Amino acid sequence: MPILKSFLKDGEAESYRNVEVTFVPGKRAVMTLFEGRSAEAREDWVELEKIILSDYKTKEEMHELMVEKGFTLKSEEEIAALKLQKQKEAVEEEERKTKRREEAMRQREERKASEKKEGGNAEGGDAEEDAETVKKETKEEL
């Protein structure tokens, strides 16, 4: 599965023309082939075939599948631009995660400070809630 994940996430699948990768957490990796007049008129597309990608064990097999199904590689310039875009998106996603973590920490600190002022026990009841918040943040990052 790490090979398939690499093929999809590292942009190798999208290095082919007319290929779009959409990740659905918790679902099997499936390539769905559509036929239609244009990329813009998706409502007119007709589903032709679904292929379970986990059946392919090597990147070579996956590339062979793409060619077999009629996909052609993008130019070197297009691939370089795609990689640059993916890197930019990864940096932006990491920045969003960092901001969410910082905001969650700030809110916890404010809540504890507020409880201290009110004479509540900031150490006691919030530990479980804090653990739950950390668990939720961790799940979102995956």
Outline the structure in words.
By secondary structure, this protein is mostly helical. It has four helices and two strands. Strands 1-2 form a two-stranded antiparallel sheet. The radius of gyration is 22 Å and the shape is elongated. The relative contact order is 0.10. The mean pLDDT is 84.
Q: Could you name the key traits of this structure?
A:
142 residues; mainly alpha; two-stranded antiparallel sheet; 4 helices; elongated
In short:
The protein has four helices and two strands, in the order αββααα. By secondary structure, the protein is mainly alpha-helical. A two-stranded antiparallel sheet has the order 1-2.
One letter per element, helices H and strands E, the order comes to HEEHHH
End-to-end distance, in Å? 16 Å
Number of strands: 2
Mind telling me the C-alpha Rg? Answer: 22 Å
Shape: elongated
Number of helices: 4
**Strand order within the widest beta sheet:** 1-2
Poorly predicted runs of 5 or more residues = none
**Helicity level, as a percent range?**
40-55%
Mean pLDDT: 84
Q: What's the story with the biggest beta sheet?
A: 2 strands, antiparallel
